[in-house]
Model the fold of this input.
Amino acid sequence: MRFAINLPNFGDLADPRVVVELAVAAESCGWDGFFIWDHIVVADAMPVGDPWVQLAAVAQATDRIVIGPMVTPVPRRRPWVLARQAVSLDHLSGGRLILGVGLGFPPVEEFGTFGEPTDPHHRASLLDEGLEVIVGMWSGEPFEYRGNHFTVVETSFAPSPIQRPRIPIWVAGMWPNRAPFRRAGRFDGVFPIAADGAALDPAVIAEIVGLTGRDDLDVTVGGGPDADLEALEAAGVTWYQVGPYPGAGLEDVRGMVEAGPPA
Done:
C-alpha cells in the first residue's frame, strides 16, 4: 500500500505558496502522493485556489512524489483543454501525474451557480464523452469524435503523455451509487467515497472492487491516520489518502504532513 496527502484547495490552502511548502514537506517525510481537490466555489467569499496552478508549482518543486487533482469534475471542463493541461503537467512532473475524475460535487454550487447542468445523468453523459475525447487525444494519432455533447474534427494532438499507455485515470464515485464503479473498470483506478462522508467498511470496498470487474486497478480511499490498514489492504486498497479533518487549521495540516505516512 502507498500513502498520499489529500488537501482541499480552499481556505488557508488556496495560497499556492503554502501548498508548495506542504508538498515539499510531504516528499521529505516519506509520503508517496500529494493530491489536491478541484473546487471552484465553496462558500460565498471563501478563498479558493486553482489546483492546476498549484499542481504545476508542486511539480516544479518536487522530484519523486506522485501528484494530481483528486478529483477534477470533467463535466465542467472542455475535455480538449483538460487533455492539454494534463499532458503539460505530466511533462513538467516527469511522468508523475494521476488524473482523478468524477461528476463534481456539490452540483448546485459547482454547476448551478454558473447556469450549468446539475442533473446527475446529464453530467454522467458529459463525463463519459469527455473521457473518450481525452483518451483519444492523448493517443497522438489522428482522432475525431462526434458525440451528443462534443465534436472534434480530425486532428493529431502533440505532445503525447510521457506515461504509457497513458496518464493513469482514477474514477471517483459516491457509494452506494454503483454506476461510477462500473465506469472505473474501463480505466486505471477507483476512488470510492461514502455519500454520508463516513469511512467505508472494508467489506463494502471489496464489493466496489467487484463492481469494476477488474482485479488489477489501483483502489484508493481516504481517511484518518488510525485506520485498519491491514483490513483495507485485504479488501484491495492500494493507495490510502490522509486528509485534514473538517475545520483543521494550517498548523494542524502541517503536523499531519510532517507526521509522515501511517505505516
